[in-house]
Design a protein that fits this description.
Elements lengths: L6 H10 L3 H4 L1 E2 L10 H17 L6 H20 L6 E4 L2 H11 L7 E5 L4 H14 L2 E5 L8 H8 L4 E7 L11 H10 L3 E5 L11 H4 L3 E5 L11 E5 L39 H18 L1 H20 L4 E3 L9 E6 L4 H10 L2 E2 L1 E3 L7 E5 L6 H17 L8
Parallel strand pairs: 1-11, 3-4, 3-5, 5-6, 6-7
Antiparallel strand pairs: 2-8, 7-8, 9-10, 10-13, 12-13
Helix pairs in contact: 3-10, 4-10, 5-6, 11-13
Length: 399
């Protein structure tokens, strides 16, 4: 554990552990967070060991099980739940599919979602509608800045089985009032299944306090883990209602009698790439012990608002993220410019953001402000955007 009293010394030290932040002003944790040296070194060492000593050695499966137990315990500590309520996955979308396809659906059942969802949720819902004859009802919540609860409440009918939505919207940066959404859903007998790709690691999350039913997490975004890692929280009293869609070996006997693993482990499909899992574990420990969850959440919140204020002061630029419902995502548009052109031009200038374009959601440029960013980087982002806008759209290209 590293203890550094001086705030500037701390951020300088932590940034040195994220080499990507030395190469670019890295504002894209909403896609992939910067990989830490500790995660990289752990992953490489594990891959090197596999290469030189073999991947299957005595006791390897037992060691994988113990490793996974350690990861579940870290997730439970981070998100305030029980280790047995987490299944380890390869992505947020895998976690959403586990929950959505595990329910017993009847033709005519309804799912309520919103107009701002990521394709990682929209696509599984479309498959359910096609396969089971479900109706997908879309609550128009604007950019997440209006009467979200009212819009969702008005979309619920007696046939509503599930409300499926994001905690923090990828295309607007708005944090939805999940506690109130859960209350409304449960009052109507519906489950709440959450795409937590943007919220897990970006904002504080207490799953038991929220009383949410399913919470699907990405390992590679705000948790800064390797690709192909993630987890899904499934509330412990739901394992009989959400059945495994696929099942790994050693969970049935020769007669076909099912013997599913206890807790959410029953939803895990099979072996994951061991070096990546060890990299995720190392990252979670580093974030807890060296960075500090309270500190990083507070810094994201503070720097996110500084970025909002900086961009909002630029003529011809419109910030579309609601300031009173935000954390680190800041979305914006510029008249006459495509978000693609803005993103490309900033990258040429050493600044990494991304654009978001997935109708019916908004098409915007998106800045994902991480705890590793600095006030100087935010100022530089603003100055470069002002220069780009002043030069006019003909001076940049989306190529």
């Amino acid at each position: 554990m590293t203890t550094l009293a001086n705030p500037q010394t701390k951020i300088d030290h932590l940034r040195s552990q994220l080499p990507a932040t030395q190469a670019t002003a890295y504002f894209n944790a909403g896609t992939n967070g910067p990989l830490s040296i500790v995660a990289h070194d752990t992953l490489v060492a594990a891959a090197h060991k596999e290469l030189h000593t073999g991947r299957i050695v005595p006791g390897i499966y037992e060691s994988h099980a113990v490793r996974n137990d350690r990861i579940r315990a870290l997730l439970a500590e981070t998100f305030h739940a029980l280790p047995a309520e987490f299944a380890l996955t390869r992505s947020t979308t895998e976690g959403l599919n586990i929950a959505l396809h595990g329910l017993d659906w009847e033709r005519g059942d309804e799912v309520v979602t919103t107009n701002l969802e990521h394709p990682g949720l929209i696509t599984p819902l479309a498959l359910l509608a096609h396969r089971y004859g479900l109706e997908i009802r879309v609550a128009d919540i604007g950019r997440g800045d209006g009467d979200v609860i009212g819009a969702i409440h008005d979309s619920i009918t007696p046939r509503t089985r599930v409300i499926a939505l994001s905690h923090l919207i990828w295309s607007s940066g708005a944090i939805l009032p999940l506690d109130s959404i859960v209350e409304v859903a449960h009052d109507h007998g519906a489950l709440v299944i959450v795409d937590a790709a943007q919220s897990a690691g970006q904002i504080p999350v207490n799953l038991h306090a929220l009383e949410v039913d399913v919470y699907a997490i990405a390992g590679q975004k705000w948790l800064c883990g390797p690709e192909g890692t993630g987890a899904v929280f499934i509330r412990q009293n739901l394992t009989s209602a959400i059945r495994p869609t696929f099942i790994r070996y050693a969970q049935a006997d020769i007669s076909g009698y099912l013997l599913p693993a206890s807790g959410a482990r029953r939803y895990e499909m099979g072996e994951s790439y061991s070096p990546s899992m060890l990299g995720l574990e190392a990252t979670l420990i580093w974030l807890k012990d060296d960075v500090g969850w309270d500190w990083l959440h507070g810094r994201i919140n503070e720097l996110g608002r500084l970025c909002w204020d900086t961009l909002a002061a630029i003529p011809s630029l419109t910030v579309t993220t609601p300031r009173d419902r935000m954390a680190g995502l800041v979305c914006f548009s510029v008249g006459g410019f495509t978000p693609q052109a803005i993103t490309s031009e900033l990258f040429k200038r050493g600044i990494t953001i991304r654009y978001v374009a997935y109708p019916p959601g908004p098409t915007v440029a998106r800045v994902a402000v991480g705890w590793w960013n600095t006030e100087e980087e935010i100022s530089g982002l603003g100055a470069n955007l002002a220069e780009i806008i002043a030069a006019g759209p003909e001076a940049v290209s989306s190529k």
